[in-house]
Amino acid sequence: MINADTKVYGIIGNPIRHSLSPQLHSEMFKAYGINAIYTAFETKDIKSAIDGIRALDIKGVNVTVPYKEDVVQLVDKVDKQAMILKAINTIKNENGYLIGYNTDYLGFMYLLKKNVKENYISKRIAVLGAGGAAKSIIFALSKLNVNSVFLLNRTRENALKTEEIFKNLIEIEVSDLNDKDVISSSDIIINCTSVGLKEGQIPIDINYVDKAVIIDIIYKDSLLIKRARSKNLRAINGMDMFVGQALYSFELFSGIKFDMNLAYKVLGDNKR
Ligand code: ATR
């Protein structure tokens, strides 16, 4: 029952109407008997939104596009991993003291462990894109003891900047999205470009792919995923990463690790 004691959580972003987070977190609060709600906050003014968290004693939020980097400057403390990534997707309000975390990379670790049972440490892995999403994925791979990856990006300069950030954690070989040799010899290709968020766009020529497992971190099936499946390649969308990051955010909010099967049940038809 919602009453004056109900704690408020939410997700801040713009646009945010497509987000599955309110549905998932609200149902989990209900399932674990926690008097809390979780909703979506669409804002054009991130600084005021963060002030609002303090003023209204909102207990915790997720942060998504385009504010993950901006909030690093706006919270009181940034967790060590989030500081490396310079991106926050979870804020916990501890009596007015805001602490920023990043659970995106944990979500990707969950996706990879769940779906790729082979020993990926020795695999040839290509990451497409060099922005915020790609950084989380490269960080996750380094945490999983992967020694080297190929980084294919439209703008070489941006890829070199990303390489610089991770140079002490993982070896990165930079190339472009048309590199047929890298694409055809890869065992795993992970799309972290924003291509695919737009209907009908694809980041690489699928004909170059020979044997790779294709992963796209977008949670709906992208054109890349669909084309890969029609070529009989294994293709994994980002739903498991989404549920994985939510698991760790929810744990920060409530101290409870929710039941993954229950999470997938709650998401129902949205899964595919
Ligand atoms: P996100 O936080 O989702 O990673 P981002 O930091 O803006 O968003 O990064 C977007 C990524 O998608 C970048 O790697 C970008 O390539 P550039 O470095 O060349 O900008 C890539 N990207 C965006 N639009 C693209 C397109 N039309 N073709 C190829 N790559 C694209």
Summarize this structure briefly.
The protein has about 270 residues and is of the alpha/beta class. The protein is built from 10 helices and 12 strands. The chain has a 6-stranded mixed beta sheet, with helices on both faces.
Q: How would you sum up this structure, described in words?
A:
Strand 11, helix 8 (223-230) and strand 12 form a beta-alpha-beta unit. The protein folds into two domains: 7-102 and 240-266, 3-Layer(aba) Sandwich (Rossmann fold); 105-237, Rossmann fold (3-Layer(aba) Sandwich). The chain starts with 6 loop residues before the first strand and ends in a 5-residue tail after the last helix. Helices cover 37% and strands 20% of the residues. The model has no long low-confidence stretch (mean pLDDT 96). The protein has a six-stranded mixed sheet with strand order 2-1-3-5-6-4, with helices on both faces. It has a six-stranded parallel sheet with strand order 9-8-7-10-11-12, sandwiched between helices. With 272 residues, it is α/β, with parallel strands linked by helices. 2'-monophosphoadenosine-5'-diphosphate binds at residues 129-134, 153-155, 158, 192-195, 203.
Provide the descriptors you would attach to this structure in a database record.
272 residues, alpha/beta, Rossmann fold, 2 domains, 6-stranded mixed sheet, globular, binds 2'-monophosphoadenosine-5'-diphosphate
What overall form do the CA principal axes indicate?
A: globular
Q: What percentage of residues falls in helices of 4 or more residues? A: 25-40%
CATH architecture of the largest domain: 3-Layer(aba) Sandwich
Q: Give average pLDDT, whole number.
A: 96
The multimeric state of the shown protein is single chain
CATH superfamily of the largest domain: NAD(P)-binding Rossmann-like Domain
Whole-number count of domains: 2
Ranges where pLDDT stays below 50 over 5 or more residues in a row are: none
From the N-terminal CA to the C-terminal CA, the straight-line distance is: 31 Å
Question: How do the SSEs run, as a string of H and E?
Answer: EHEHEEHEEHEHEHEHEEHEHH
Q: Strand order across the biggest sheet?
A: 2-1-3-5-6-4
- What share of residues are in beta strands? 15-25%
Please tell me how large the radius of gyration is. Answer: 19 Å
Largest sheet: 6 strands, mixed
CATH topology of the largest domain: Rossmann fold
